[in-house]
Amino acid sequence: MTLCYNRKVTYLILVCIFCIMPAIAIEPVTTTALIGGLFASGALVGYKYVWCQFSECCDSPWIRPNISAMNRKLFDKVYGQHLVLDTAVRAIKGHVVNKEPSKALVLSFHGWTGSGKNFVSSIIAEDLFKMGMKSKYVHLFIAELHFPHLERVETYKSQLRRWITGNVTECPHNLFIFDEVDKMHPGIIDAVKPFLGSYGEIDGVNYRKSIFLFLSNTAGTDIAYKALQYWDEGKKREDISRKEMEEVIRQSAYNEEGGLWHSDLISSYSIDFYLPFFATGEKACETLYKR
């Protein structure tokens, strides 16, 4: 109790000193003596703790996975996506509770626009990081915004590798979200492949605690046709298994034009789960029956 009290008092003193110093002219010798005295007494041991009370850090309470809240929000707010609800939560829970995961977690979300891919991604961010999508440890890349020019593919790949390395070096717990992968120029997304393997470290950096989400419209039509097939056969859509959908999605993503076309991420099995977002509503039915 005494130790805890003394630490709190010390932190308060430190905060006051650093807030007052810019406003008061203190002689250099006095300032040096004061700070030196604090160092000598061990008062600055908790400097990081004080700093992290006011600024986002790679630690609690800023990084605080809340799987129960994530599970509740998804089940309350996401409809008709049984494979996403079941697989995504279990995969993320297994990853974050493991102090030494074997590799970075990679989830690939597929489905038509409006099926909920971005919404689910935002819920995941909210319940992994206190600041959600605004966290400095959450990185959103949008194909047409960040990688628009075909002639700059190699430059984009180099920049992407540096960005990931720099951020994971600072903090191993990062969430990288790649939106509109279907609109990305082929080859760019392969730049992340070295960070997705089962390596202990790469040049002293551990990437295995990070999570990568790929969001793509690719395979949307094939996903919808699979659901229609079950409906025609009098089966429930909820009976569709992840195993049969993963093969459908993998083949479509690998062969359809887009960021995953003939991608090494697919052929090397770097992606852990391919999750289908089924289309819902009248628009989906009209589109299917017109084809």
How would you describe what is shown here?
By secondary structure, the chain is an alpha/beta fold. 47% of the residues lie in helices and 9% in strands. It has helices spanning 2-20, 28-40, 47-54, 67-77, 82-96, 117-126, 143-146, 153-170, 220-232, 242-255, 264-267, 282-290, and strands spanning 105-110, 138-142, 175-179, 211-216, 273-276. Strands 2-3-4-1-5 form a five-stranded parallel β-sheet. Helix 4 runs antiparallel to helix 5. The chain is globular. 31% of the residues are buried.
Which labels suit this protein?
291 residues, globular, disordered N terminus, single chain
Structural class: alpha/beta
Q: How much is the average pLDDT?
A: 86
The percentage of residues in β strands lies in 5-15%
If you compute it from the alpha carbons, what radius of gyration comes out, rounded to the nearest whole angstrom?
24 Å
Summarize the structure.
This protein has 291 residues and is an alpha/beta fold. Helices cover 47% and strands 9% of the residues. The protein has helices at 2-20, 28-40, 47-54, 67-77, 82-96, 117-126, 143-146, 153-170, 220-232, 242-255, 264-267, 282-290; strands spanning 105-110, 138-142, 175-179, 211-216, 273-276.
